Amino acid sequence: PADVRLRERARALQVRRQSDPEERRRPRGLPEHADYHALLPRVYGAIVNKTSVDGILALNCNVTDFYAANKYPVYLYYNPYQEDKTVTWSSDSPVDLYDAVTKKYLTKGKRGNIKFSLPAGEASLVYVLPEGTRLKSEELKP
Questions:
Q1: pLDDT at position 14 over 80
Q2: What's the rounded Cα separation, in Å, for the pair 132 and 95?
Q3: How far, in whole angstroms, is CA 129 from its chain's centroid?
Q4: How many CA atoms are closer than 13 Å to the CA of 100, on its beta-carbon side?
Q5: What is the rounded CA–CA span in Å between residue 75 and residue 142?
Q6: Phi/psi of residue 33, each to 5°?
Q7: How far, in Å, CA of 26 to CA of 32, rounded?
C-alpha cells in the first residue's frame, strides 16, 4: 500500500510527452498540471551550477538537449561584469577546456582546480574534453 502509493506518485511526476494527455494517469487529488509544476525546480537545479564568482553561472547545455548524442559536457557561461573575471573548473582527471565561441582552448591537459578567464560582458560555450581530444567541427554544434 505505501510503496504502491509511492510508485503511483513517482509515475505522476515523470516527464511525459505533451501529446498524450489521455494516456496519463495521476493519483487521485492531484491537479492536471501538478506533475509539470513539480518538475520545473528539478530541471532548473540540473541546469544551473554555481561558479567561483558570484553572479556568474555555469549552465549545463546537455540537460535539455534530449535528442543529441552529447559526447562531452558543455556549459554556457556569461560574464555580466565590466571587467574580465576568472572562474574555476574542478576535475579529477586531466581535461582540455575549449570555448566554441572564440574557437580557442582555454586550457589543455590540466586537472584539479583549473582557472580560466571570462571576458567582460561576453559569453563562453565551454566544452569539457578528455585530455588530447581531437575535434571535428561537426562535434562542436551546440
A1: no
A2: 8
A3: 15
A4: 20
A5: 10
A6: -105, 15
A7: 8
Could you write out the DSSP letters of every residue in the chain?
-HHHHHHHHHHHHS---TT-TTT----TT--TTHHHHHHHHHHHHHHEEE-SSTT-EEEETTTT-TTS---S-EEEEE--SSS-EEEEEEEEEEEEEEETTTTEEEEEEEEEEEEEEE-TT-EEEEEEEETTPPP-GGGG--
Q: Give the integer Cα–Cα distance in Å for 80 and 50.
A: 14
CA 64 to chain centre: 7
Q: Are strands 57-60 and 85-99 parallel, antiparallel or unpaired?
A: unpaired
pLDDT tens profile 57-66 = 998 888 877 7
Q: Which of left, alpha, beta for 94 (phi over 0: left; psi -120 to 50: alpha)? A: beta
Where residue 22 falls among pLDDT bands split at 50, 70, 90?
A: very low
95 in Cβ contact with 129 (< 8 Å): yes
Q: Which residues of 91-125 are buried (b: 16+ CB within 10 A; e: fewer)?
A: eeeebbbbbbeeeeebeeebeeebebebeeeeebb
Query: Which cell goes with 42?
Result: 528539478
